[in-house]
Design goal:
The structure is a single chain. It contains 13 helices and 11 strands. The chain has 365 residues and is of the alpha/beta class. The structure holds nicotinamide-adenine-dinucleotide (NAD). Nicotinamide-adenine-dinucleotide binds next to helix 4, helix 5 and strand 8.
């Protein structure tokens, strides 16, 4: 195993490392330092556990640990699943110095992190993300949540992990469509704040799709460095952190309009970013050439570029009005002035959005 990349999310006494490299699940000597007391609960799901759980368990020798394997899928990111985590912690006699290890994608990370935030008012947790989306986004930054029937991520807490262990080797088993959806978030980081990274992605898209672990590690590190920096400056999203939602207001609306499960989150974000870029050419005089480069990169990553047929622009706008980022009923969007230059735009004209979405239905198709 070559030496992993090592980053730090700077948050004073709550700062934590992100290790990135192939084979890290087996490097218990490294990650055991992030566990707190003697009690450890590993939470995973029934897709990831058969693949990787034994490697994590092998590193827990000598500790008092147990494992909880939940059913796979967003449908299980619920209070009921959190209750199962609490029951497992009680069974383990977990005290305030216990640690939860989250082994899986964003669903497991969000759920296990939420349970860690609640148990005895907050215990340690370690993220071991196994999807590209979780590696570049959800495992870093401490947003944890479960869904309610009324909506996604409605109950949650900010609770930072003690470490993030990114074993890039686990991406070998990730379904192709999930890998591509994760790439949408990678493109997002470049689009919103790093023009040089955008050019690098244009050069390395094929290597990323071929799952070259070295190239993947470099891309993941660049994303985590950017997200870690933003989180350390704006942990609870009072300002700058909102930029990470580039493409997300459109994307969330698309996910809801098409029905959850039709588009993967990353696919919806890909389409959403293209709408944001096109709106920006009209509203902020951003260059149309940059919007074209974004579209080309999204397509190259095998992601959808058009709003699915049958989705009504007016319906999308109605859904966008429900977005958490809006303030006092005014639509607040993350747009860009060009590649690498996203900004928060308050009070966007709704008629213009509908016009852009109408064109979008034709233009990208
Ligand atoms: N907390 C945050 O900041 C944040 C940010 C973005 C998204 N999220 C949340 O993340 C969730 C989506 O995460 P996701 O895209 O990772 O989905 P996911 O956790 O459902 O994983 C996708 C699929 O891949 C499977 N899988 C995971 N790792 C695998 C591997 N190595 N090999 C084979 N299969 C594997 C999973 O079992 C699942 O079927 C959503 O709930 C979203 O709300 C949170």
């Amino acid at each position: 195993m070559s030496a992993p990349l090592n980053l730090t999310v700077e948050l004073g006494t709550r700062s934590y490392p992100i290790w990135i490299g192939a084979g890290l699940l087996d490097d218990a000597e490294r990650w055991r330092a992030a566990l707190r007391g003697r009690h450890v609960l590993v939470v995973s799901n029934d897709v990831v556990a058969p693949l990787y759980l034994n490697r994590v368990v092998a590193g827990l020798e000598g500790l008092s640990f147990s494992t909880l394997v939940l059913p796979d899928g967003e449908a299980h990111k619920t209070l009921d699943s959190a209750a199962r985590v609490f029951a497992a912690l009680a069974e383990l006699n977990a005290s305030r110095d216990a640690t939860i290890v989250a082994l899986g994608g964003g669903v497991i990370g969000d759920l296990a992190g939420f349970a860690a935030a609640c148990w005895m008012r907050g215990i340690a947790f370690v993220q071991m993300p196994t999807t590209l989306l979780a590696m570049v986004d959800s495992s870093v930054g401490g947003k944890t949540a479960v869904d309610l029937p009324q909506g996604k991520n409605l109950v949650g807490a900010f609770h930072q992990p003690r470490a993030v262990v990114v074993d890039t080797g686990t991406l070998a088993t990730l379904p192709e469509r999930e890998l591509r959806a994760g790439l949408a978030e990678v493109v997002k980081y470049a689009a919103l704040g790093d023009a040089a990274f955008f050019a690098w992605l244009e050069q390395h898209a094929d290597a990323l799709l071929a799952r070259d672990t070295q190239v993947l590690a470099e891309a993941i590190a660049t994303c985590c460095r950017q997200k870690g920096g933003i989180v350390s400056r704006d942990e609870t999203e009072q300002g700058e952190r909102a930029l990470l939602n580039f493409g997300h207001t459109f994307g969330h609306a698309l996910e809801t309009a098409t029905g959850y499960g039709v588009l993967l989150h990353g696919e919806a974000i890909a389409i959403g970013m293209l709408q944001a870029a096109r709106l920006s050419t009209q509203l902020l005089r951003a260059s149309a050439a940059d919007a074209g480069r974004l579209r080309a990169l999204v397509a190259r990553c095998g992601l959808p570029t058009s709003i699915p047929r049958g989705v009504e622009p007016q319906r999308l706008l109605d859904l966008m009005r429900l977005d958490k980022k809006n303030l006092s009923g005014r639509l607040r969007l993350i747009l860009w002035r060009g590649i690498g230059q996203a900004e928060i735009v308050p009070d966007v004209d709704e008629a213009m959005i509908v016009r852009v979405l109408r064109e979008g239905l034709r233009a990208e198709g």
